[in-house]
Amino acid sequence: RVSFVLLVNQANLSSGLIIFVSSLSFLHQYSLEDEPSNLDEMPLMMSEEGFENDESDYHTLPRARVKQRQRGLGWLLMGGWKILCGSCCDCLARTCRRTKELKARTVWLGHPEKCEEKYPKNAIKNQKYNFFTFVPGVLYQQFKFFLNLYFLVVACSQFVPALKIGYLYTYWAPLGFVMAVTMVREAVDEVRRYQRDKEMNSQLYSKLTVRGKVQVKSSDIQVGDLIIVEKVGIKSIPTVKHFVFLGSCFIRTDQLDGETDWKLKVAVVCTQRLPALGDLFSINAYVYAQKPQLDIHSFEGNFTREDGDPQIHESLSIDHTLWASTIVASGTVIGVVIYTGKETRSVLNTSSPKNKVGLLDLELNRLTKALFLAQVVLSIVMVALQGFVGPWFRNLFRFIVLFSYIIPISLRVNLDMGKSAYGWMIMKDENIPGTVVRTSTIPEELGRLVYLLTDKTGTLTQNEMIFKRLHLGTVSYGTDTMDEIQSHVVQSYAQVIILLPAAAPPKVRKSVSSRIHEAVKAIALCHNVTPVYETHASVNGETESTAAEADQDFSDDNRTYQASSPDEVALVRWTESVGLTLVNRDLTSLQLKTPAGQILTYYILQIFPFTSESKRMGIIIREETTGDITFYMKGADVAMASIVQYNDWLEEECGNMAREGLRTLVVAKKSLSEEQYTDFENRYNQAKLSIHDRALKVSAVVESLEREMELLCLTGVEDQLQADVRPTLELLRNAGIKIWMLTGDKLETATCIAKSSHLVSRSQDIHVFRSVSNRGEAHLELNAFRRKHDCALVISGDSLEVCLRYYEHEFVELACQCPAVVCCRCSPTQKAQIVHLLKQHTANRTCAIGDGGNDVSMIQAADCGIGIEGKEGKQASLAADFSITQFKHIGRLLMVHGRNSYKRSAALGQFVMHRGMIISTMQAVFSSIFYFASVPLYQGFLMVGYSTIYTMFPVFSLVLDQDVKPEMALLYPELYKDLTKGRSLSFKTFLIWVLISIYQGGILMYGALVLFESEFVHVVAISFTALILTELLMVALNIRTWHWLMVLAEFLSLGCYIASLAFLNEYFDLGFITTPAFLWKVSVITVVSCLPLYIIKYLKRKFSPPSYSKLSS
């Protein structure tokens, strides 16, 4: 969690300095300094003939879609007030916080106390509130919703005597209960976040001091500390056992940038030469480092040792640094901490967590506004029918308070408790073990998703390469025929031993055995892999010398391989499995062990590393026994096709392997004479010394060798996918979810995985968006892309940045039409920006899923964030709203739990509103009949009991209802498409419930008034009892799948009401309610209010059944 400079690599117990540096990031902003500030948007599809690339012409191009919003009174009333208030609050917050300016720093080795400034604490903090802001923060989050603010105003109005209706507790008790439930839930979430943060901040690390090694908590690490990174099992920052080259180590950065290649890091030369670790404190040295930056791919600094004569100065670059969220894969590292906490690259690239609000909550908020409008209109009508006589303004407010039950306060209570119940059900589901709900406010979002943005490494793939195919042109070997290759290798090396003393045989057509021998030998030699041997602890607990062990012990048990690419490790492991084993390597030679146990030594004369431009790597080696010089090369088929001799099978077989999702490499060789190599070496050294165009001259010399090379074989390596990735992606596609893969990995790798995971189906074309660097290129490439139909898009982060700078709207519009999109070389900030773009341009719900620290920004930006607990840590899991253990669990999470949560909350919300509207209708009928008097129909406990013990349990039992069985929802994912249309809760369904409420409220009130005989108290008794029975029957009408708890809730509520009648003599005539007349009158009214609805439901099910009921039957 810190960033530091690599001071020491401890493989040979000599000290070196690695700059250990960690970094964090804010939302990415495009730098437009190099572009004219007044560039207009250019409409696409203008004629390419008339298009000019001159940047100066852009000033005269027509504007597109740029309209200035008129900001008048209408804008202010329709939501502008929110924007103004938000801007004022942001301005006030910025003024209060006064963000500290980031500056360059001087860091003294091992002396944090010498730091001139105070740097942030090295602690993780995912909490939303602190002790002082908790109560104000929670209250603000609750009362910013119209619903809760409305209840607060109504409750406060009861302190005004002229507006008081009924008892205070009937208004304040429900509101207090709602606030208490909300605060308890938020407090529990905060405590959990605090405990998770505390666990992470308490992880122990080794710190080097004058007294030796001490253990410190990660939160206690300071700028200037010397930290030893060690390997303990599989921790988030493993250590070093043995390293490849002196003063170097390999690190993995997939948790930071998504790249799977291992990176080689080197120590500061000055400190690497120190004889002992303690000498780091005897020298007077410091590191001057640039100020904290967002860029994870660059670093500038200087190392200075002052006690030497002369002073030693050494420049530092990205090659000397280890950022936070990276993992040491080899070697033991000692580094000086440069950045901590909020100033690390990984944190700077992470956006701060925001409170997420579900779409269902926003929809219910809109409906409550509509209800409030209806309430005001109804109140005005009542006052108008009175003739606006007397203090009509006071009467208007009394009517508004009187009809306040039209918006029931129990709505929020029921929904919040429902959300908690859904979270509990998700975590208890045995089919998705280990799932954790970290944000309990948005489970319904799982049922409304349209876009799924997924990481690649660790999410879709395991990042474990498996060798799958070897093709020699005439014969192909798969995993089931590798034993044949092994027998050929054993046979060929047995022959080599016999033929060594004899003269070379005459050239004839090579046999399959000799071709396999050449291919396996080439694969075993042409790479950058180094074998590593784990150290063993001796009796006294100290570690034996790794160097000595590497010379003596080549046993297979403790050998592991290190390389910058997992592909190369897979190839070398495969050659080991067929009998040819890489046992040792240093800067000048490598050694292979044959099946017979013989050690063959080869001298490395030259090595040409892989680059993204050349797409190939080469090595020139000399065999020790014969002195033969051979140039081996391997690379991508596009790069190698023109280098190898003519053949008629390479292109076709590469296509076949690519369709299987395999990553292909073409292997070739060329034998060189002593004269040829000497000539090449002279020209190569001369090119490396040239001042001008060095890179061009060097590549030209190397290319002179890359001609007419002998094609040896084609290899196919598969990146192992996570379990059941293919069926899960197919399930999500069938559910209408569009999947975008955002990865920091290379374009070729990302395309390969998109094919192998079936993210892109075999029948679909792939459009690779070529690299663009300016507006003109982007314009032409977008036009080319527009002409393609039904093809997946693959684009790199750099090209994406250019497109979004000039053609944001057009690009998003085109990309959203694609069945799948793959964005490679994406920074963490770009991932979050893509999420924001989709939310802004499509207004659809987005979900982001990932497992690494580089996915945190994306997860927090999405409407619904899902984290996978990966092998390398829990950063994504801790920052997410939902945490799962495997990617395949997302299918059940969305199809089953997402569906149930949304359907149940929609039914629950509308039923609670129906419960309020029906009693408000009865109040309106009562007031209109009794001369528009603003007098309540039911008072005191009747109103409290109606919304609590009499109807609460049956209504809340709707959270157990389900329209489709889980097996059916997974078998027919197409059912999920209906959910995204939001038909379960819309103005149409809401209007139906309004009409039902008006009908039932009218029948209940008019029926009671018609059937009562003498006293008014009988009206209250008849209507209220019929109301309770109607509500219980309506719950039964809406249930689709009965649960035993639902039946219990119905009878429990009915029993509570009957039992409470004995104590309600203040409201009811106990003598009347025990008469047969009361019973038949209540029964008639209840039947008239409910029977027509049962008949309508039966007819609708028979003649127009919903899609899910067709499947169920």
UniProtKB/TrEMBL annotation:
User: What subcellular compartments does it reside in?
Assistant: Golgi apparatus, trans-Golgi network membrane; Membrane
Q: Which Pfam families match?
A: Hydrolase (PF00702), PhoLip_ATPase_C (PF16212), PhoLip_ATPase_N (PF16209)
Query: What is its EC class?
Result: translocase
As for membrane topology, the entry says: Multi-pass membrane protein
Per UniProt, residues of the P-type ATPase C-terminal domain are: 878-1105
Q: Which GO terms describe its molecular function?
A: ATP binding; ATP hydrolysis activity; ATPase-coupled intramembrane lipid transporter activity; magnesium ion binding
What are its cofactors? Mg(2+)
- Tell me what this protein is called: Phospholipid-transporting ATPase
Q: What is the lineage of its organism?
A: Eukaryota, Metazoa, Chordata, Craniata, Vertebrata
